[in-house]
Amino acid sequence: MPNIRDYLGNEYKVLECLGCEIAKKGIIAPGGVVYESDALIMSGDPEIPIGGFLVINSKRHINSLTEMTKEERAELIELVVKSIKVIKELGLATRVTVLQEERSQHFHVWIFPMQDWMKSKYGEGLAHIREICEDVRENTDAAGRHKVVEAVEEIKKYFSESEKHDKI
Ligand SMILES: [Zn+2]
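Above: query sequence and zinc ion SMILES. Below: predicted holo structure tokens.
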């Protein structure tokens, strides 16, 4: 596994599995952990600076929804729904794409905010997500990266406040 360098320039060693490193907080994406339980952990993406882009990782080294308990699946879908809501409420995107690939060795879900500039530059749909990710990795300046960290912090605040008031 190659080392990874997050979009703020922090380098991390990945010994075996990126998902496991994230699960045990050996790697913490810029902005920090948004949500954590015994089964799941969610933060921004370490390498791709897009405001509102969230990644949910399983704590266990599994690669399929079918390996989760019923309770874990229920928790996951609530977390997905809550994430979509917060992205929209904070005005980070009007549409959200949710992706999970069993191809990956460690279970994770992408909560991908489809922003207006992406639609106008690349068109809508799954086909362009890789290109969009490459684009932002190469072309986001320091101020833009800082804004992404701020978006993660806003999402964190929303999550902790909604937990207090129990409004999912
Ligand atoms: Zn793993």
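The chain has one domain: 4-165.
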